[in-house]
Amino acid sequence: MKIYNRKNNFEGLEVFGLADIEESLREARMNLRNFTYIQIIEEWSKIGQKIIKDKDLISREGVLYLARWLRKENLLNFIVDSLGGNLEGDFIKLRAGGEMIAQPRGIVVHWTAGNTITFPIIALAQSTIVKNSSIMRASKNNLEFTIKVMKIINNLNSPLSKILLDNITIVYFPHEEIENHIILSKIADCKAIWGGSKTIRTLKNLPEKDNCENIIFGPKYSMAVIDRDSQFSDELRDNLDKLALDIIAFDQMACSSPQIIFIEKGGLELGAVAEILSASLSKLSLKYPKRLIREDIASKIVIKRCEFLLDPSLDLISSKENDWSILVGGEVKLEEAIQSRTVFLKEINQLEDIAKLINPKIQTVCMIAEKSRKKLLAKNYFYNGVARCVPPGETNYYDWPWDGMNVLSRLVRWCRLS
Amino acid sequence: MDIKTLISANPFEKTQEEKERILLPLIKNSLLNNFNNEFVSAYYKKIGFDLRKINFLEDIPFIHASCFKNFDLATVEKDKIIRVLTSSSTTGQSPSRVPLDKETALRQTIALKSVLSNYLGKKRIPMLVFDFEKSNAESESLTARGAGIRGFANFASETYYLIDEKEGSFILNKPLLLRANKEYADKEIFLFGFTYLLWEVLTKENGPGELSFKKMKIFHGGGWKKLESKKVSKAIFNEKISGYFGCPSSQIYDFYGMVEQSGLVFIDCEQGFKHVPLFADLITRDFYTLQSITKREGLVNIINLIPSSYPGQSIITDDKAIIFGVDDCKCGRKGKYFEFTSRVINQEVRGCGDTMPNIK
Questions:
Q1: Could you tell me how many CB contacts below 8 A there are between chain A and chain B?
Q2: Which top CATH class is B3-343?
């Protein structure tokens, strides 16, 4: 495997084991100990500002959002909401008496999915803010971006930036090299795994320490709903513009990408909503042309388009080329995701009925609904398995809690003093 | 020129330009029949079908081959259907069902004869079928394998089935093969079989050296997906098969066809390319623009004049091919020449987004 760290200027070095790396990470972790959460957050915030100024990086998908996510205010809110309001990392008084304090787990090994280039940086930031060391197994798609950001940190040249980098090692090897995954798994005090079903099953079952914490971000499916009243709202076009942006982001391969939209009956005709959405997707495809299309997905889109054209009860609105497709109509059920700007649009009697379709695999419901109904609907969906209900334009925001987890809290151990 | 005359004409004599000029009006005219099917009619209405806007073969609206699995696409009355062809459905899905009327079945026979005579000559010769007889049994429905055997058998003076089925296994009838070898060692003969079956059976047999069919031509097709998974290339396959039968590997012809386009086969030429006959066309489409492309891999879209009982005039598939040139293949055949590369393979979902939502 190849490792990238401060010692080799993130240029990459072929190694056959990670014993030395583990030792140096465990030593480096001690240097993070005396910094407060705020100090580390401020350093990451500086990194975010540098990323914004890098013309090459900022033009890439998701990078502007990453830079915003690294803002000091956002990270402060993250830590306050997640760790009980203690920014200094001190003891927190317990109502029952005694105190508790959050402590890092040690070395967190991250496996991130290749569908987003920015996620390794988010994972490293949240891990180091709570003073863990990290080994990031990058994927082929996000390695280059991750290394570029590491080099930006290296150029900061501040004492804390050096300490942060000493606590980070990036590794790369082809995903099928299971023996290297085993090496990483055995080192981990905490494994944070993002990916599809096969990846998750493989990685979580590798040999590991008895007390290793496993944080699993498994495969998920997301959708959008539009209530009756919102279909008559002046904001519908604007909302569908935002929803279209959610659909096209990350080529619709993220767990939060909406794959299906349910509109409540009694509002606009299904075709009318499809027309408005098609205008939004059409605008976006001009602004963000599809760069690549996987052959198998291209073929699936062609098949679905034909099926929706042949079936008299269904309809299709799509671009001429294999860019975006709205598959209109069909029975009230979830559909296998096609991805790559392909969305199903269906009618449902009442949005409450969607609860029957929901299971814990549904992560995000993008909700376009009147304020008065939102909470009630969300509670209903949450109870059945949904993890997030968010407005359009925010479905792909990495916010908290995520996947039903308070992630920062999982990255620390809670220790008691009485 | 009427359809039957076109189908029976020399399939590789006309240039691509001449061919398109003849083919386009005939195909356009045949599309109107598709309105007899409620599904195709719905399709055409949704896309604002207008014959006047079809100026090139690539403008003909295509239907994906997989739609024959879920839709009854017959464009003739039920009582006109004489046979339903079914695909082998090896991937565990429902099979394609392709309805044939008399006219389509007749055109298929003429079309196959027209293409095959270009490789086999006009005289009937003995045929070895590398399959069991039941594959071609008389019934209202016929599998792709059966249809293939039946089509090629039109060229046979005699037919010998080389495979016996015993308790679900395929057993080579070796004594019959040895007898045939004795009789036809230096005479013209052809063998027809499915690629995967040939490989599966013959890799279990002894050889080479036992047989010597010097003038035998071998036609095989289908099952490359399975062979690719076993890392068997065309060169490896040809070496094994020519070695076994004792014939030159230049006499082994891989063909590409599909149940939705029966009667239309694309056979390797001496240069290793497949050719498109006069009554059909092959378009490769870019995965994104869906426009016609050449010299790089694209999705295969077949244009075909044969079908009169289903909308087979333009069928897009999951297969990939590269068109290498037009009218200038060194073998002398005119029209497009291409190489079928592989099927589109479903890749593993690697992101955190899943395609299967645990549908209730």
A1: 153
A2: alpha beta
